[in-house]
Here is the input.
Amino acid sequence: MLASCIRAELVKLRRAPIWIVFVALPGVSALIGCANYQSNLGVITPGWANLWTQQTLFVCYFFLPALLGAGCSFLWRQEHQGSNWNEFMVQPVPIRDLVLAKFCVGSLMSLLAFISIVVFYVGSGVVIGVPGAFPAARIAEYVVLGILGSLVVVAIQLDVSMVVRNFAAPVGIALAGGVSGVIATVAGFGNIWPYSLLQTGMNSNELVDLSMASVIQIVILSAVYISGALAWACRRLSRRDVVATM
Here is the structure.
């Protein structure tokens, strides 16, 4: 049942322009990061580590949370139109599978964004001739933890977009969440606040010490937030209907 629900979600998004944005916007962030990196070579140490911080600074704070918010709004957009909500609620599949299908497709959007981030990062580094050995293990850690943190944002934003039928409002909430994540990270709560876990995992500003204890905490809290958000969505759909607008 879950596989069929995932295929149905993918069919709805087959020709949607949202996929292009998840590739293009990380590219824009990479261009900005390259410009910042090259213009600040007099004050920063040339190398792959500083190129990573410059390229991921904007994408993990602002671009990616907003992108994920838009993607989650897009996943609920059709259900909130006309009488589609009624058709959605009477599907002969468990509500759990309906929710998990949207989460899986949202996760696929996040994965596409991270693939784009890594490709632009490596490609631009080669083009501008970044010195030193490529820190494959460190970047892999940042990417894996970043993806895990992004899934927290996906799960929470799916809840928001399920309840808020306006397309733009959840995007604004996601952007505000990214800003709140910056504040929480600076205040020392980057390993706790859900919208900070993406930024903490990517370690774009090197404000967090990614020790083994910190990594374990990020993994555990991410699992808790994701499972909690999905459980809440299933419970709400099971107990309380949402009236769609015409």
Notes: The chain is about 75% helix and 0% strand.
